[in-house]
Amino acid sequence: VAVPHRAVVNCFHAFHALLDIDQDQEWLALTSIGFDIAALELLLPLTLGARVRITSLDRIVGPGGMCAVPIDAPIVQTTPYNWDLILRSGSLPPGAKALCGGEALPRRLAQQLARSTPAAWNVYGPTETTIWSTAWRIDSDRVTIGQPILNTSL
Fold first, then answer.
1. Reduced 3-state DSSP string for the chain
2. What mean pLDDT comes out for the span 132-136?
3. Which of 84, 94, 95, 110 is most deeply packed, by most CB within 10 A?
4. What is the chain's alpha carbon radius of gyration, rounded to the nearest angstrom?
5. How far apart are the first and last CA of the chain?
């Protein structure tokens, strides 16, 4: 899918504001470079002067887990399936902000993310609309795809 640069820039601006991030935040890059969401976790932090730690899900949920990755309050973006693995393994870093998207978010998992993180968002969007199109801060028993991101409409 051909995506114009201005659409990627808009997505970055939207998530910069939504997540209230700055150069002191660190992102965990877990996503394969072939998946469009990798652009957000690899490039947005770099546009702000923040750090990106490239790792794999296996290193996080495997033996030693997050204990082996010294990180303070990162932003972690992954699918509901992978979030379930991370939470079951007890490998969530303290203070992590969560972005969960790419497939339907089960209510049980939404509730777990809300209890386990200071801030978690359910995000939705087909590639054609540039990574994510909507975001909803998880704060109740309700699961929704949320509202359109900055400068977009549904």
1. CCCCHHHHHHHHHHHHHHHCCCCCCEEEECCCCCCCCHHHHHHHHHHHCCEEEECCHHHHHCCCHHHHCCCCCCEEEECHHHHHHHHHHCCCCCCCEEEEECCCCCHHHHHHHHHHCCEEEEEECCHHHCCCCEEEECCCCCCCCCEECCCCCC
2. 96
3. 110
4. 15
5. 19
Torsion of CA 153, 18, 39, 29, to 10 degrees: -150
Residue with the two structure tokens 């203070």: 95
**pLDDT at residue 101 is higher than 90:** yes
The residue written with tokens 């054609």 in the block is: 128
| Residue 96 CB contacts under 8 Å (≥ 6 apart), including other chains | 73, 74, 75, 76, 117, 118
pLDDT at 129 over 90: no
| Partners of 121 in the β-ladder | 99, 137
Of residues 74, 125, 80, 119, the one with CA closest to residue 100 = 80
